[in-house]
Structures are given as structure tokens and as C-alpha cells.
Structure prediction request, 229 residues.
Amino acid sequence: MGMDVPVIAIDGPSGSGKGTIARLLAERLGWQLLDSGAMYRVLGLAATRRDMALDDERALTELAQDLDVSFEVDEAGEQRVVLDGDDVSTAIRTEEAGNAASKVAVLPAVRKALLERQRAFRRAPGLVADGRDMGTVVFPDAPCKIYLTASVEERARRRYNQLNQQGLGGNLSALLKDIAERDRRDSSRSVAPLRPAEDATILDTTGIAVDEVLERVLEAAEARLRFEH
Ligand code: DC
Prediction:
């Protein structure tokens, strides 16, 4: 579907800043945005709400196939995630939902069930796709692939600030442990493990402000896609 529509794939570990950068980039270019982590988070949340075991591959795959989820943009231009008619945009951002997402994401059949839903976001004039396997599995033909990373301490600090801003609260040392654990799970799973695509531009964002990271990503995209910003 839409193979001629350009894709900028932005992958990286939790807290690397890829969510923020992907959103700003999509706004700047006027392109579609896919927050693939939100899909895994919605599934994790839906499973938790139904008291399902997070390793029941068959049941979770059925749930992934039937999931009534939509991504909408409100009047303020914010992306809202709606599950079964319920706005879960904030609920999916908790650490619990993130951990549940990381657990259901190790299951191959679950990943397969979410594949086409993710590819359906590829619509003109272009797509900015944020996740772990955008450049390696979901859009391997993406003309521009970026891999953002940062030290685990910096990522924990960013997550801490983000959670506080959203009024969700958090504990820095617990977050550090959580992030290290999630890195390990996301990188060691057998299907679509977290790793840069061979043709990805790798950017370490430790100590670099958001504006500067955005400029560097735009430069990389410009070089790969031949547009000017
Ligand atoms: O980017 P995030 O923190 O919202 O993602 C939550 C979890 O979902 C992450 O720990 C692993 C999983 N995930 C994935 O396996 N593949 C993706 N493309 C995106 C997220």
C-alpha cells in the first residue's frame, strides 16, 4: 500500500526523544504521524483492563485483531487515542501501560496482527513513523531511517520530567530500573528486536536540546529525501 509515499522511520529505545522529534517533524513537514508504541500501549492497557495474562499469545492476538482503537487529532492539534470509545491518551502513558506494552510486544503473532494497521498509516504526502522496528520490519524500504539514542540516565530523567508534566508522577531510581529492564526486553526478543537498521543514521541525543536534535534529523532527512526545510 502506498509504496511510493515517503517514510521517515524514527526508532530507538524508551526515552530517546523519538516521540517528541517524530511529532515535531510530522508537524513541520505536514506529514502523517504513526506512534506505533501507542498501539502496543493500547493493547497492553486493554489486556490489563480485561485481566488477561500478558503472555497469552492466542488471546492477545485475537484482542489485537479486534481492537477498537482510533487515532484522532483534537482542535488543539493534539493526537488523541480512543479505545472502545474511551479517550485513553493519558492512561496509556503510565509506566504500567509501558511495561505491559513491552511484554505483549515480545509475542510474534501479536506483532504480526498489528503490522497491517501500522502500514495503513502510509498516506500522502508522507509518513513519520516512530517505534522500535519501523526501519527494520514495518517499513524496510523507508528512504530515511533515523535511530535516536541517549544514555540510560538521561532517558530516565526525561521520562521523569515527562511524567511529572502529565501529572502522572514518578520516582527517578525506579524509572532508571524500569528503563534498563525494558531496554533488555525490547533488545533481546527474538522477533523484531530493538536495533538500528543497517542503513540508519544514528544520533546520540545525550545532552542535546530538542531543537538541535530536530535540526539534525531534518538535515539527515533532507539529504536522503532531497527536500529543503
Ligand atoms: O515507544 P513506547 O515507549 O511508547 O513503546 C512502548 C513499548 O511498546 C516498548 O517498550 C516496546 C513496544 N514497542 C515495540 O515493540 N515496537 C514498536 N514499534 C513500538 C513499541
